[in-house]
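Problem 12. The chain below contains 165 residues. Write out its predicted structure in token notation.
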Amino acid sequence: MEQIIDSLLNDFERGKMSRRQLVQVLAVGALAGSAAPAMAAVPAAPRKLKALSVNHFVLAVPDYTKTRDFYSDLLGMKVSEDTGKQCYLRFGDTLLTARNSSQPDAKPYVTHVCYTLDKWDADAVEAELNRRGLAPRTDMGGGSKSFHIKDPDGFDLQVASPLKK
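Solution.
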């Protein structure tokens, strides 16, 4: 029993377990009267998601063609998938999407930022976002699954696999 508690404390001290997880495990063990049920109740360690780069960001503007022409001309961004309402501007491994704002008379704004994650596994990412209580919204844009969540300040944050070239 003492070895199990030492192991749990070591995991907590190394950051492999939160204080809340440690207390939950110890409480379950105390209630059960043995260490075996406590070990079975150890929650899965949080999966750290690792951002590799900015995948894309979206600008909502009054006239996307002005934005398109500015970034293409000044910074040499490659224009693609111009629909007449929006277009993609590629630079390196990142896309800038310029689109007409759905709010007339609104000032230009960034609608969201998407980050490319390392070792993309949509099911594992969704499970981790749910485990953290972030209520992910699935997005199937571009033919691959990605997720939108709100950050602590209410900004729309998207996570996705790397862009296809």
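Discussion. The longest strand covers residues 51-61. Students who got a different answer should revisit the alignment rule from Section 12.3.
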